[in-house]
UniProtKB/TrEMBL annotation:
Single GO MF annotation: flavin adenine dinucleotide binding
Entry-linked InterPro entries: AcylCoA_DH/ox_N_sf (IPR037069), AcylCoA_DH/oxidase_NM_dom_sf (IPR009100)
Name of this protein: Alkylation response protein AidB-like acyl-CoA dehydrogenase
Domain of life: Bacteria
UniProt xrefs under SUPFAM superfamilies: Acyl-CoA dehydrogenase NM domain-like
Amino acid sequence: MRPPSAGWKHGGVVERVVEVARRLAEEVLLPDAEAVDAADRVPGAHLAALDAAGITGLAARGPSLEVRVDVTAALAGGCLATAFVWLQHQGALGPVAAAPGPVSAFAPDLAAGRIRAGVVITAVHGPDPLRLSGPPAARRLNGSARWVSAWGLADVFRIAAVDEDGSVVTLLADVGPGMRAEPAGLVAANASGTVTLAFDDVPVAEERIIERVRPESWAAADAAGLAGNGALALGVAGRAAVALRSDALVSAVAAARGALLAADVAALPAARAACSALAVRAASALAVHDGGSGVLRGSRSDRLLREAHLLLGFGSRPAIRAALLDRLGA
């Protein structure tokens, strides 16, 4: 399976990656979408195509929010499971590449796809967060985290944990002894390798620390960084709109994209909710259009409806759920 011939990485213009991502989604990802939907792993050929096109290393180049949203939407409109795995990798690559310490040495291999990464960043919330304890020479990671993607594909994970003084520490840990995975069994994109991941005294070397911040700084950054996940729903909505040849839905996707890009922190939950609700509406319209063929397991309509369902909850937060429930009349 060959990637598109044109490569943005040689031209040096970051914005060209959107064009390359859209072509790769059409030529490489979409033809496999139904097969990947039924598989338990994203094909290596998909990841190799992203590597060859330079898209794997996007986060290391400091792209704009617009570029990140458009590339994510393009990939999600081709194969959501592949987009999941790619997006998790970006969530590790960007902070590692920007880190001031020795962990930044991993960035070239991450950017090239020689090392695959995932993220474990939601387990700092709640009464029982993932915890990092012990002296610098003998740090250990304990606890568990839900919704960890790329299990079975990732070599390393960027992990956020709470240390003994209450700070949030992000680190890069190798996949290895002390980690136990329980498959999540998602309604869609199951090939993303999404699991609940437990950590039992996993050792963490001091040179693997990426950053240490206070909880309030972590919460502020988390609230400000939610736009990217909304792009996954834009990709699903856009695919259904194009399949329907619906000018109205294509326009609605463009409007939702614009609102997502323009949203400040206060407006972001509503903008994210609008993207997820639109994915459900567009996929439902396609199911109506496809009629009887759309109720067959593994059909285009079935896959997109389940993907829209999944994205109602993926990367969500209480404010996003509240805005979605309001939109749904609940």
